[in-house]
Give the backbone structure.
Amino acid sequence: MDTNLKTTEKQQGKIDVLLNLNRANASLHENRVQVIDEGPSLTDNIQSLYELYANYFRQYMSFYPGDPDIRILPMDSVDVKSTVHNQTLQHLRAKRYNVNDKSPVSQTTPYRQLIELYSKDLYSEHAD
């Protein structure tokens, strides 16, 4: 019974991380809307999005056994032929499929743009 409780707490913790990620992503977009005329566009802040996702990924992975020292490579090191790029592309396509979004995403879409597209999609779903 104690094991089930721990499992339930872990599941809730992971859900909380994902909900907090969604809120943080929305906050970035809402802040961008408020200062659109005063500062750089969201495109100029993709590095901030990447760091946001990396931090929440670390939090999510903390619910699994293993070393908590998870290092994320620089965003620009991800090539369109890499496994990371392919998995990100497939994740974005699957997410869009689940919400009946038929917008195509090319295999050659740069990783930086995939991050931006994912963030915008997540935000538009948050706003619904």
The helical segments are 2-34, 46-61, 83-98, 111-127. The chain has a mean pLDDT of 86. The radius of gyration is 16 Å. Residues 2-127 form one domain.
